[in-house]
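Following up on my earlier thread - several people asked me to post the actual chain instead of describing it. Fair enough. Here it is, all 363 residues.
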Amino acid sequence: MQRTKETVIRVKAPGRICLMGEHQDYLGLEVISGALNLFVEFSAVPVENDFLEIHLIRLGETRRIELEPEQNQPIDYLESGLKWMVREGFRFNRGFMITIAGDLPIGKGVSSSSALCTGWIALLSQIAENRKFIPARQIAQLAFQAEVVEFNQPGGMQDHLASAVGGLLHMDFGSGRNTPRIKSLPIPPPGFLLADSGSTKDTLTTLHSIRNRVCTAARILTRAQAGQEILKTIRIQDIPDDDRRSRDCTSLIATLVNRNLTRSFLELYVKQPDERRILLLGKFMNTHHRVLSKLLNTSSARIDELQRQALGFGAVGAKVVGSGGGGCLLVYAPSNTNEVAAGLSEAGAGVIPVSIGPGIRIS
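Reply from S.P.:
Thanks for posting it. Predicted structure:
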């Protein structure tokens, strides 16, 4: 295999942290998420062959993808992304050696698979014969199609948007999970940590289960066929006491509480100066975690323990991040970040200082 002398193409796609609104985007509700300063990183060098040779450094694997993707492949986000780009009119007729690496934790609740898909779409736009730069929202849309729509998966598009657009975003999915309204928000003062619980999670099973329980309860209570549609307006007090004992209804109540929390937080957050945003964010993170843990059951005993310890070490807020059941705790400790990090490390957690930053980068 002989390399050409053309410039290396590089892409960095960040992960995401959700501050408010976990498990809300795929239910047509509101989310507040930000892009992480941890990335999936791609580099591509032209070579004289007729396929894509992909080196997945962190997995220790090498892949070969033909330039004409198969139409009915098993779940394979890389082949799916190529297929969607071909549908968009991009043409691929030369080989590349592609390296995929980075420092974004895998399977820990910070959207490693969505960052992979988002970065892959951006890279494909630059190695195509008819290469062109496409807007961040279009990158997110195509990545969502390749990861979620192609395989009929239950997730939403918040991860792809956070990775592609960057910054801190308010996303309203009220008009559909793939047609959100988004607005940039002021980034809170620095001081975030990721505390790794040491366990991975089963994202798809969790998302399927929550969506099915919430929508089942909504349909039963409203005798409606489209249970998800009423989640924007139904009130908790509208749920009869006798119905509240079922697991489905508990999940519905948790969803409505989180919906109201996200709306209340947004209304207050945009009005506050930075110094007041710290305590406000911490307070709402803690409340959000309690709902996720006690009502939606997406935390774990280990993450709940880390959350209590983080607050004991002086953090102002902490919550499980991502689909839950494992993965990471997001901790906010602006005034004593190092002390809280040291305490969590002594408690056995893997700790990574993180911040909210820009979206996808192409060079």
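Residues 247-269 form the longest helix (23 residues). That should answer part of your original question.
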